[in-house]
Amino acid sequence: MQAIALCLASLAAVAMSATARAENLDGYWMDSHGEVILQFGPCGRDRCGRVAWLKKPRGPDRGPLRDFRNSDAKLQSRFVCGLVVVTGFKKQPDGTWADGNVYVPDHGMNFSGYAEVLDRNRVKVTGYMLLPIFGSSEVWTRMPRRPPSCEEQAKMIFEGKWSEDTSGWPPAPPPVASR
Question: Model's pTM, two decimal places?
Fold first, then answer.
């Protein structure tokens, strides 16, 4: 859970280098610990990210993990898989993405941050509270495969068929140019 918290906190606002193309953000990205996959895509003119897969998808009740640490009791029953945790990443004139927020279910907290797309398959993300100087960074990897839907994953959990093996997943669609 701590790894998930660090990873999601690292993904607060995305800023890509001027040489990287903005469409490189869309798609599936796995954190450096192999604990979580986020799917990034458009939400209006901005970019958002949702939890697409968790290595440890079970909650304390052994069912699919829920947002039980949320300070709002009405939201504590939400499933984490499928939850939009990254919002409001805005494209900047220099080709970067910034001004977004990341919600971290492990802590029920929001963070800020930035990222730099290093190449087509790697993005360096930095998460922070207050000031970037107090943040931490890690490199995420683009996933070549698409995880099963959160509904399919929940069914696997309930049927006792959950597996961390990603080799049987279908190929992920290639990134599409953003406007």
Answer: 0.81
Give the residue from 130, 127, 129 showing the smallest Cα distance to 114: 127
Note the pLDDT tens digit of each residue in 147-168: 999 999 989 888 988 888 888 8
Question: Per-residue pLDDT tens for 118-129?
Answer: 788 988 777 788
The pair of three-digit structure tokens given for residue 4, joined into one six-digit string:
């998930």
**Distance between terminal CA atoms of the chain?**
36
Both tokens of residue 30?
């796995």
The bridge status of strand 101-104 relative to strand 84-91 is antiparallel
- CATH 3.40.50.720, domain 2-158, yes or no: no
* Residue 101, strand partner residues: 87
Eight-state DSSP code of residue 77: T
Burial of 163 (0-12, 13-18, 19+ CB in 10 A): exposed
Average pLDDT, the chain: 81
Q: Where are the domains of the chain?
A: 2-158
For 149, how many CA atoms within 13 A lie in the half-sphere containing its CB? 3
Q: How many residues does the chain have?
A: 179
pLDDT of residue 5: 46
